[in-house]
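User: Predict the structure for this protein chain, please.
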Amino acid sequence: MIKTIRMILIFSGIFVLAAGMASKAKLTKNDHALQMTYENRARDYILHSPPGYEAMQKRPLILVLHGGGGKAEGMIKLTHNRFNELADQNGFFVVYPQGLGKSWNEGATDSKGYAREHQINDAGFLSALIEDLAKRYPIDLKRVFSTGISNGGLMSFRLGCEMPEKIRAIAPVAANIPHDIVALCEEPKANAVGLLLVNGTEDPIVPYQGGFIKVFRQTRGKVVSTDQTLKIWLKKNGCTETPKREIFPDKDPADRTRAEAFIYDQCSSGAPVELYRIEGGGHTWPGGLQYLREGRIGRTNRDIDATDEIWKFFNSFK
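Assistant: Here is the predicted structure, written as structure tokens:
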């Protein structure tokens, strides 16, 4: 009985972790709660379409993936609706898919988490979702991108490594390459995928230096370090190892973090690699919602808005 109660508390804690991201967000007339069937399972997602898209030429599509225990609509709230605002201003589509059991099968071999335990084919689902949306909306299949936080960031790595013919660039936040898909990511591929990585040096859940992911004392898979992630991608994309560096103004000294960008744009593949290192940052989205107290997830940087930086990066791919 005591063991059962303990397990309930552990899993309750895991879902509380993403409570801020999972809470309700206000949907607008341009947000469409939709569903498709994939491998005999109903899969939900929210599509945000820019106003007047019917008269537009083909436009980019950004996949925004929630973290473990989160919900699709929670990503709208986490980012303060910023992706949708940018979509309306710049004319691109944003899709917020929902993972089964509030999780993604990012390729780790352990069975913790619904999607892993049930071997959900999330890569297949997201690939089919892209194809289905492109049939019904003016989407440029050469400009499809993926971003996400935590488990959603890990899933973005899997998409970039497994289907580079469909994903032009990825922007994981609070995530490194999952240890179990390193070989997949190192495989030579015909298509190079751009990478913008946003990581906090004091992330208490997905360690900047690599190792086991820890959610309230429970380990949930293993990742390589941020430096190793960067090294793998620089080699994949044929980039020189000397970056341009930019230290952002400390707009909010009270957040006790600093943001610095390392930009590798001399790449033989033509696909750049960037690291936004958040010194003192936690398991958070810079400029986004502080969805739990600092003691649980660390600090949120206020010098940059990760959403703006991610769109600027994706928009550089023409």
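Residues 18-314 form a domain with the Rossmann fold fold (CATH 3.40.50.1820).
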